[in-house]
Amino acid sequence: MTAPARPATSVSRPITGGLATGVWCLSTPNSSYVLAVAADGRLLQRHWGDRLGDVDSARLGEAAAVPPYELPLESQEPLPVDGGLRWGPPSLQIAFPGGVRSLELELVGDAVAAEPGAHRLDLVLADTRFPLQVVLHHRVRDDSDVIERWVTLRHTADSGEPLRIIRADSGNWLIPQLGDYRYSVVSGGYSAEGQLRRGRLPDGEYRLTSRTGITAHHANPWMMIDDGTATEAHGSVWSVALAWSGSWRLTAHRLFQGRAAVSAGFGHDGLSWPLDPGAELTTPPILGLYTGGGFGAASRGWHQHARAHVLPHPGEDRPVLYNSWEAIEFDVDEAVQLDLARRAADLGVELFVIDDGWFSTRTSDRSGLGDWWPNPGRFPGGLATVARRVHRLGMRFGVWVEPEMVNPDSELYRAHPDWVLHFPRRRRDELRRQLVLNFARTDVRAWALDWLDRLVADNDVDHLKWDMNRGFSQAGWPERGDAQDWLWIDHTRGVYQVIDELRARHPALRIESCAGGGGRLDFGMLARTDQVWPSDNTDAYQRQSIQHGLSQLYPAAVMSAWVTDKPYSHDEQRNQYAYHVAMAGVLGIGGDLNTWTDARHEQARRNIVLYKQIRAIVQRGAQYRVGDPPGAGLTAIQYVLGAESVLFVYRPHAEVAPGPDALRLAGLDPDAAYTDPDTGAVAAGRTLMSAGLPIGGRLPAGDWASAVIRLNRTAPRPRAG
Ligand code: GLA
User: Fold this and answer.
1) pLDDT score at 721
2) How far is the CA of 467 from the centre of ligand 1 (A)?
3) Who lines ligand 1 at CB under 6 A?
4) How much is the average pLDDT of 607-636?
5) End-to-end alpha carbon distance in the chain
6) Distance of CA 502 to CAs 192, 439, 445, 508, 537, Å?
7) Span 248-269, pLDDT tens digits
8) Pairing of strands 662-663, 693-694
9) Using omega within 30 degrees of 0 as the cis cutoff, is the peptide bond preceding 567 cis?
10) Ligand 1: distance of its center to the CA of 423 in Å?
11) Which tens digit of pLDDT belongs to each residue from 412-439?
12) Catalytic amino acids?
């Protein structure tokens, strides 16, 4: 039986220990992480799991003797180096001048600092012979079970030769001894992002990586580990996530001797970065979360952390959006967009976004990317006219941009062919007829910031859909010679910088991250964007598994979900199913409103009214997956925010899966009474969570049956004592 999670309150003494004892214990409200110096001087991870008392963590220091020769030790180290008697995957690998490898680090100092709502521990290591300092940073917060770690590498000489960084992970997390190890990750592809996969962690190394320059569609930089028995509601789950939006590598290392560790960091194999004297490299944060409450609690822990410490505007209701891309693609012009805007406003839409096709010669994917001025034939009054009308209709105004890209057929490329990633004497392979602009370059960033700033200012733009439609290839930066691999880090940092500066100049601007669908969703991007376009796949049934996978880490408030015309505009029940799927995220409309029947308009109106009533619960509430996973029968997702709860139930195929007639809910106050405002039915929280909520009568007959059920806490029963 798992102890109930502690509320997110202040932790007394979140960091204890120090150099004198050689033990450090970091605690969150519900977990502890202990490091200790072993007898041979090396730093080892001694515990990551349930919260420990001071005495227990001190004892872990005593136990840190040097294990026998046969047991590979490096997986226990917080940042195993390439050096000495280590043969596992290194988290830190450096070549010093003269080709010297084999790092020899020793602990030279520690520092604990209080930050607002958090505590930080820095452990300082130095190479015994070469001018390299390695600082292991840790942060624990008073209100989150997520532990943040990152690393700073410093070349401490004033002059001399650079050292070459070959691998610089943000941290290696030791998973304690378990009977077995199971991983949970997402796999996928374009239009099939976020497919949850679970399997036995194989002996040896299981590696996920992106070499695309972005987070990528085929994987996402996180992994959960359990012993194979955890469920939604029970069991210990360790999860690790890298907050980075460029190429990355994550390695789970399982030892025959019964240990596993997960190390991750930016960059992919084969790259290297020279570090000049006096320079430093700071890695992106790697986040670790332990919970004893199963996969559901792990997800809620991540969602809560995202709201409290990642998202820029977590308390804001995400608006209901309209975007015509899925309906008419590039065929945008002033008349068509204004007509759609009027229709959208009439449905209750709050944000109107013009997608691709509004600028220069961009009437297809052949030309114009890079030339960011309105197409005069299509928008004779510029975007400002449309923006004004959209605002007058009571909606916010949004625009699609793809700042990191250029079509070779563009004025920009003709003027600056050297601005793209390229190698001399190599082809420049196009994908979707476009090349990647090198955002590591200051001139490229200055250009992007300038036109984006003017676009937003001159047209009162409230929302940008920031797209990025292809991976890097021929990723060279000839001017930087030997140092050109820095572009793999600095492109991403450059994108962050431009977005951060744009937001600083336009505090009311909101941004959606898109990369050919969900190719750039991660905690790095979420720190500076408000929502994400998870996939170009808008089929509601397939979207369920995409949303299911993404929701393992990322909250519903960031998942844009549109009802489009795919593929069933004639079937009212199936359309309703699509609304219910989209309403479990951030509802948007993407169909061709000009072709919709009155009944479809009315259906949209009704659902938008309902969504506005429940969206605070969906977007800010705790999420419980209380049914089967998508595809397996009766899927159900429940959100709870304070006294309110909303339940989405989906039964796509009536004959295959009639499902249970009552669903056991979660997250309610067992001693309170809950009323369904639609039926007036009242039941105790305890009853709803143990006997379940009868749902048989709530679902329509046939395929594509779905329902939204609301429950409001109406009468808290006075507690005894
Ligand atoms: C990508 C996005 C789409 C749309 C198009 C426009 O594919 O994922 O939503 O914006 O680009 O070209």
Assistant:
1) 42
2) 7
3) 325, 355-356, 400, 467, 469, 514, 516-517, 533, 536
4) 95
5) 25
6) 31, 15, 11, 10, 29
7) 999 999 998 888 999 999 999 9
8) antiparallel
9) yes
10) 28
11) 999 999 999 999 999 999 999 999 999 9
12) 467, 536
Residue nearest to atom 7 of ligand 1 (CA): 516
CA of 516 to the centre of ligand 1 (A): 6
Give distance in angstroms: CA of 326 to centre of ligand 1: 9
The answer to pTM > 0.90 is: yes
The yes-or-no verdict on residue 355 having pLDDT over 70 is: yes
Q: Tell which one of 191, 355, 433, 531 to mutate to probe ligand 1, the residue whose CB is within 8 A of the most ligand atoms.
A: 355
Convert the pLDDT of each residue in 203-225 to its tens digit.
999 999 999 999 999 999 999 99
Residue among 330, 365, 514, 543 whose CB has most ligand 1 atoms within 8 A, to mutate: 514
Residue 212 to residue 216: CA distance in whole angstroms: 7
Report the nearest atom of ligand 1 relative to the CA of 536. 8
For residue 9, name the pLDDT band (cuts at 50, 70, 90): very low
| Phi/psi at 184 (5° precision) | -125, 130
Atom of ligand 1 nearest to the CA of 517: 8
Q: Is 281 helix (H, G, I), strand (E, B) or coil?
A: strand
* Digit-coded pLDDT (tens) for 510-558: 999 999 999 999 999 999 999 999 999 999 999 999 999 999 999 999 9
Position 103: which residue type? L
**What CA–CA distance (Å, rounded) separates 339 from 344?**
9
Closest CA to 488 of 523, 443, 440, 530: 440
